[in-house]
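Long-time lurker, finally posting.

We've been working with Iron dicitrate transport regulator FecR (Niabella ginsenosidivorans) and I want a structural starting point before designing mutants. I don't trust myself to interpret raw outputs, so I'm hoping someone here can both generate the structure tokens and explain anything notable. Sequence follows.
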Amino acid sequence: MDKKLENRFYRLFALKLSGEANAEELQELEAILVQHPELQFFYDELIKPAQRDARDTERAEISYAAHAANMYVQEMLTEKQGLPARQHPVRFTKRWVVPVAAAVLLAVLLLVVFLNRKPGAIPGAGNEMATTKGSRSRIRLPDGTVVLLNANSRLNYDEKFKGDVREVSLWGEAYFDVTHDAARPFIIHTGAGTIKVLGTAFNVKAFDNGVFETALIRGKVAIRLKDHADEDFVLKPGQKLVASHNNNKTDSVMILPVTVKDSLIAETSWTKGRLVFVDRPLAEITAELERVFGVTIVFKSEKARQYRYTGTFDDTDLDQILEILKLSKPIKFQRDKNRITIE
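Top reply, 14 upvotes:
Generated this for you. Predicted structure of Iron dicitrate transport regulator FecR:
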């Protein structure tokens, strides 16, 4: 996609989020989405309302503000080079004033350093994209790699992918469709280890819950765990690596086939709006539901935590999922807004 058109999309999207887009701008945004369906995932996931706690909301706002600041810097660079500036500045409501002002101030300071740096000096730069509980995001990296970032996750990456490698860091869960570049491997850093690829599609789970998982859909990846520094675990398409760890020490490593149910790969079903569970304990299922729907789920019964389920669900209706779960097991749910108690 043309970079100018992509930036225009972000501008129109920001105006819609702030409630300040006029009819003509909304019509233009709709036309871009029709012409470029690859932007629809990003649009759908961020436009729908989500319940957020204060910390998640702050992180999302700062992440968004950083993107706005980056666009502001690009405009200043354009003017510096004598090119015409764009005619439709992004406007923000009061909600965005503080994070945007702080990010823009930082961006301007970095810009001054950039414009006055000595030859050969390379300023450090990086982006963070963060999702809250109940939201997802689609990110296109500088090399064309597409990342679908699942709920309650963070991705850090360099803005230009300089040097001989393309490096990102991930906390949480993401699906990567990596652009092939044999000369520059793509490396993902997580708390449990690193994943090295050339061009492939795979899913990574790297939450702080004692389990690290990588599922390969196509291509080839090599995984190096932090406490297995001299050993690479190489996956073939249709395989996944599951490593359990405790206190930064790996307890076990297994290479297993990916799980397929109802013509869906369970490990990547979330990218298609579905949740697939195969013989999973209720405690693991509820942890996933907390991330997807932005709720808190507590157990009054330890026995209920161990009940196991197999099923495929749409990820749009939490109440329906809860009703289905209680049909086959002797459990009850009590819901008070975003807090759910299981008895």
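Before you design anything, note these points.
The chain has three domains: 3-47, 127-261, 273-342.
Residues 54-80 form the longest helix (27 residues).
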